[in-house]
Amino acid sequence: MIKNNKKFMILACLVLFLSLDQCLGLWARSLDSLQDGTEVAFFSLINQDNPNFQYVNNNYTRDDTYYGNILFGPDSGCPYTQTRWILQKQSDGSFIIKTPNADAAPFFYLLNESQNRITVSDLSGVQGTQWVFELISEGIFAMRSLGAYFPPDDSVYAEGRTNGIIGSSPNGGLSNPGTLWKIRLLTPLPPLLTGIIPVDPNAPRSPQKN
User: Fold this and answer.
1) What is the mean pLDDT of residues 85-113?
2) Looking at residue 110, what DSSP letter applies?
3) Which residues contact 10 (CB under 8 A, 6 or more apart)?
4) What is the pLDDT of residues 65-93, one digit of tens each?
5) Closest CA relative to residue 76, chosen from 205, 196, 210
6) Is the CATH code 3.50.50.60 the one for domain 2-186?
7) Dihedral over Cα of 24, 27, 29, 32: its sign
8) DSSP state for residue 90 in the 8-state scheme
9) How many CB atoms lie within 10 A of CB 111?
10) Residue ranges of domains in the chain
């Protein structure tokens, strides 16, 4: 019994140590911070004073059989399991942004669908799933897709909105605060511990679309 308790305490300490490591994520300051395989959480500057709508959730809210919105949610906290995304760099320098959340299956790839919907797709090669990060100032980024899945195709900048919805806009940068983002750099979750790092079951869930 004592041996089992000792093993449990060692495992608990290891999980705690690795969980704390996830909380030490730094903010990206330049484009060099964003590389293939980098794990991140996207923080909305337009909602920085609203704790309910600060981070981009990595699951989607279904509003019909096939489509769902990616919405804002609160800081899900260490180790950011509800707001974690993985960057996959392409040969042209753009990125595919993938959710590691198995609940979103088979829709894993962040998609600029239209002006009023950022969602996820099961196809990584469709128009709207390739993104380019633009450095606006040190530590502040805009996220530009290579096109919208549905017209108007010039609505390419991911645009956070104060009602919790994420859409897209043709105008990005300082003139449009909704398109300004900070990017938290996260340490990858250890594969063997991904399923056992504790997540608060009572944590706030995604805001529902009106």
Assistant:
1) 92
2) E
3) none
4) 455 789 999 988 878 889 999 999 999 99
5) 205
6) no
7) positive
8) -
9) 27
10) 2-186
